[in-house]
Batch of 2 targets.
Target 1
Amino acid sequence: MCTMSSVLKIDLHTHSEGSYDGKEPVGLMVEHVEDKNIDLDGFVVTDHDEIEQSLEAVKMAEKSDIIVIPGVEVSTKNGHLLAIGVEEKPEKGKEFMETVESIRKMGGAAIVPHPFQKTRHGVSKKKIKDIDAVEAFNAWLFTGFQNRRAKKFAENHGYSKVAGSDAHSLGMMGRAYTEIEIDKPQEEIVAEDVVEALRNGETSMSGRRAPMYRAAFHYVKASIRKTAYYFSRLLERVNKQIYRYNRPLREIYLRS
Ligand SMILES: [Zn+2]
Ligand SMILES: [Zn+2]
């Protein structure tokens, strides 16, 4: 019997309009990844202390071949923490390690995003006693310095490294992603496999920045996708209006 493994590209850190600082509807995000033109196999919507949109995205992608995992970015007492693979949001404002534990109890993986960055609510080194993975590449950072610090920290402590775009707009989605190797053919892989791989840290995982030529097209593709999305919503609304307008006539017709 031959075993086949697959390498999936997942953006583990994105924000929708469910975040106070995000702006995209999840429907648009799901369609954008389904289009396959940003080279992602899946993603996680991790809004700040909100999970509704993330769960909605999972539902929307149920029948498609992309993998959407539920998640949330929790504001702990000591800084931000990504909960990947949870279906309810952990309570905010709790101690960092206490939140890590509750995420694990819920069956999720706990990942520390943009560590050590005070201006972005990054958790300080001494608070991280144990973690499933460290975001060693965050596409938001303008200098590579903070990413290099996070990477070194992960390597020194033997933590897995992941990457996330931390996208707050469509054009940023997929600008960074995590490659996760799983011992299954791709069509059999489900969200739980990815979460398990993250929890076990036994997969080959590398944080990557999308190649520059792709990054340049991200904005163009995002704006094309956005126009199509809003245009189809507009058509839906127009159709509904026409339907409403015609109804009295139809009812008269049916009654006579
Ligand atoms: Zn954050
Ligand atoms: Zn974030």
Target 2
Amino acid sequence: MSFDRETVMKHTREYEIAWQGLKPGPHTYVYDIDDRFMQEREVDESFSDWDARITLVFDKHESFFMCHFDVDGHVTVPCDRCGDDFKLRLWDEFNLVIKLTGDDDASIEDEDDVVFIPRSETVIDISNWLYEFILLSVPLQHIHPDDEHGKSGCNPAALNLLDKLSEPPEHKENQLWKGLETLKDIKADKQPKQGPKK
Ligand SMILES: [Zn+2]
């Protein structure tokens, strides 16, 4: 079995937008990003089963392109509280303006992220943005969501253990004070010994 050249080219061009051939106005692209796509790049090793769909609306203007990326998907991560793996929802959206250099345009809003590319670059590879936006859509907190009854989705055995470990905080504090007092005693002991040296 052999791949003809066209098939190979098509595959490598999957994330490229040949903007010159596009009519002005919005164009929608849908990308299904799998685990392989993410694992080929730099990702947290404890994360697995990346699965996301990115819908890109690429709005072509004369000297710039307004890009809106909508991320929706999942990734399996270890829970920060109980340690069990669970499916974390990825859900976010991002705006990006691609501005062709050599032109000036006042209609770009300051708050948008702007990147500049030379007008001679007639094909834009967006795979790095897809990767970055998926990473950015990972919530900072990785904790099992509560179930429909408001009960924690965490491993109950791990929760019980955590409860036990955090139980008597006063006791711990007392131990800390005891430790400090011992330290004070040691210092006090040293005091007279240092005295004659002065
Ligand atoms: Zn958990």
